[in-house]
Amino acid sequence: MEGKTHAIGGICLGIATQSYYITQSMDAPETIVYYGACLLGSLLPDICHPGSWTGRRARVLSKGISRFFGHRTITHSILFILLIYWLTSTFSFQYDDLIQTGLLVGIVSHLLLDAMTVRGIQLFYPITIRVRFPMYMKTASKAEGIVSSILVVSALFLIYKQLFA
User: Fold this and answer.
1) Which residues cross the membrane (predicted)?
2) Rounded to whole angstroms, how far apart are CA atoms 115 and 77?
3) Fewer CB within 10 A of the terminal residue: the chain, N end or C end?
4) Cβ proximity of 47 and 58 under 8 Å
């Protein structure tokens, strides 16, 4: 999937998570931190691709990960989710729970979306089995545009439901 689809997916799943999982209301700074973390998490797994949005901003790290692991391997796996969980649990700082939740939500949305592509993901890395949904699409195809549109409509519906239900 393209970066814009991942960004939309991260925000959409973030809204759904806030609606059904985060029980306390958030003030403006908390909302910004949470959705910023969702957005960053939705783009973070592509650090393994030097041409991606994340890869271009962390070029040295991205090239190292790409050379050592390849694309859609470790950063698209349960192992990566556990690593980010551990890293965000190690430090204590303001908004740490919101940052951790947002990052993990964004990463999960990224993995779900990439599992919808022809190439799939190595969810159980280092086991080399590729995982993908039975119905899949090519990146940057019309089908991806439809998925992006569905995510936008879903996000708007969830926001409406939060505000007026």
Assistant:
1) 69-87, 99-125, 146-164
2) 11
3) C
4) yes
